[in-house]
């Protein structure tokens, strides 16, 4: 078969991929700096080239057909590979490169960023662009890798274990003004603050320390761990947080703790789509990060 027949022009493919991702000709046009009618014409030209219907109209909206969805999924990966190949060529030519890295906000500010100067000292030709994300989405090709937390069971990603997560109880020194020592029993009488995205562990923590959890007082939930830490420092209640995020505050006496850390069952990973494994900047960062976690110590 003539390979030309199997290779539509890039302009048609880009218009379709953007329209498929947004499910909108209008948003695709804004992304590609085209008019809505130009995107529509390019999609129609691609449909004519392939001899299939990629979108169907539903009122004022466009919806992918079954074959259109299949084509879009495969095409998205192919275009990402082309973009990554281009980045790779540019990076090799410049002797450096860039890495677009998604980070959990508090983990980034408390663990990675204080160490990042060591990476730059060893790799002056590489730049790491930081994006704060609670959940990383690689589908739009805007991120190269992420440091995320979970069990690592992500079949579509390559995941390298960094640190196991252990939870510690934290409290403000202000609740100890009466001179009573901080104990699990005293902590159980406080408001118990919680990060909304983290599995609840208060009953597990208190049971591990021999405290009846029947009278616990649930307190406010927070989206970010950094906000919970600030609330604890303000004396609103006590918190249960990853130890790695409060080591400096505990060392300086800004926060107090009691009991022993309890494993959460979660682990921090460097994760990225398999297609990104060849990116030079990611390879350099991965080697530095995995080589440095031993000396940096694990959580707990």
TrEMBL record:
Organism: Pseudomonas fulva (strain 12-X)
Protein name per the record: Transcriptional regulator, LysR family
Keywords: DNA-binding, Transcription, Transcription regulation
Residue ranges of domain HTH lysR-type in the record: 8-65
Species classification: Bacteria, Pseudomonadati, Pseudomonadota, Gammaproteobacteria, Pseudomonadales
Recorded GO MF terms: DNA-binding transcription factor activity; sequence-specific DNA binding
Presence of the UniProt keyword Methyltransferase in the record: no
Family: Belongs to the LysR transcriptional regulatory family.
PROSITE patterns cross-referenced by the UniProt entry: HTH_LYSR (PS50931)
Keyword Kinase in annotation: no
Pfam families in alphabetical order: HTH_1, LysR_substrate
Annotated GO biological process: DNA-templated transcription
SUPFAM superfamilies: Periplasmic binding protein-like II, Winged helix' DNA-binding domain
